[in-house]
């Protein structure tokens, strides 16, 4: 081979190698673009095949529920045509509804579970209604038994998911069915027994693991059933011929059991578990007690005052214990306020039901004095407010407003009853024993002001009556005599309050003295000037003028003394 040929061959090989290298370089540059493109294609969202895939489970559940409703209509058509015995068809429909209830508790999807539960209720409730009322193929007692079996199946099947999506519709539907059949069938006690069992379950669950979402609906259905029972059996027997005859004890057993359940659940929930009482629970307890009390008054009117009065006093003691023992120093002020308020109302109701007005006044006065003494030891403003309430109740029970009206403004009463004298003594002693301070909050100032006004009101009435009685021993009092003596009594009490406020360092007494000044000026215009006897009118004007001058000066001495002590 010649050298040119060799060179030519080598040159060809070099060109071939260069071509191959160029091809490899082009492939290496194109590879990253291909990989990036594939990566982008991988990250792109998969196109939705169809929205029906998302709506598929919901539409499937709706279709299955419609098939269930269709099956119920088939049973209804068979029952309407009397193809088979209606009782057998009714029991078959109940079993059909129970099967749907079990299926609802075992479905994982919320929508499907709730829809199947609603289907179960819509199958069972109309079937029981028509079998009892339209076809009369099923007695109310048998219908109540079927509903009880249905409810027991729901509780057993859903025992692991009482707060699941299917349980609430099933439980609420059972309560609504029981209420409807209770009113529609005229046989109320079997269905009320079912509602009582449901209420017991709801309250036990509230204590064990918290309140269920369906609890308010069940309790309201229970309240409606008991209220209907009491209203219907309150009527004369001639007005409720379609209803079975029940004794008063049978009628009152349901509200009594409900009251015991609600009271026990509230006591455990608040006193033992130290939980805050809900607003609905508070109103529910008051409504149940009100229905029971009304039922006792309607069914056994002759025993109602003593029975309800004694119950009120017992519950009053329980409420005071619950208010001041576990809650007074805890962070649950709502429980404390509720129990304390209930205690006052229950004590007032119990006293008015058990005692005559004079003894009600005496008992309330003693209770007021006891709360005044206990308030500073327990550091309780609420007890001080209770003393005002008890004094006000005692004042109305003993007839103090009417007595003071006759003594100070109208004609003179002939007789002074011992309850009024006792009230005046207790009011004066109560204000003397209360711990009034120079710097108080608005609540304490208001309480002490009302207490001082009540004591002053009674003192003015008694002093005026005493002056009129002493004057009546010497002369027969004429209207101008009476007007002058009333002015003297009111001005004397005003001056006494002003002086006492300075000596005892009680600003409330000075404030009440100014109230008396306003009253005596109005009295001078509307009573003393009206009678027109110049001598006695001059005396009244002079006494009022001296009082108007003296009281502010005495009060200013108290104010200046406070300023000096602060300095």
Automatic annotation (TrEMBL):
Domain of life (superkingdom): Bacteria
Transmembrane segments: 55-75, 87-105, 111-129, 141-158, 170-198, 210-233, 245-268, 280-301, 307-324, 336-353, 359-376, 388-410, 416-434, 446-468, 480-502, 509-526, 532-551
UniProt KW keywords: Membrane, Transmembrane, Transmembrane helix
Keyword Cell inner membrane: no
Keyword Lipoprotein applies: no
Name of the molecule in the record: DUF2339 domain-containing protein
Organism of origin: Occallatibacter riparius
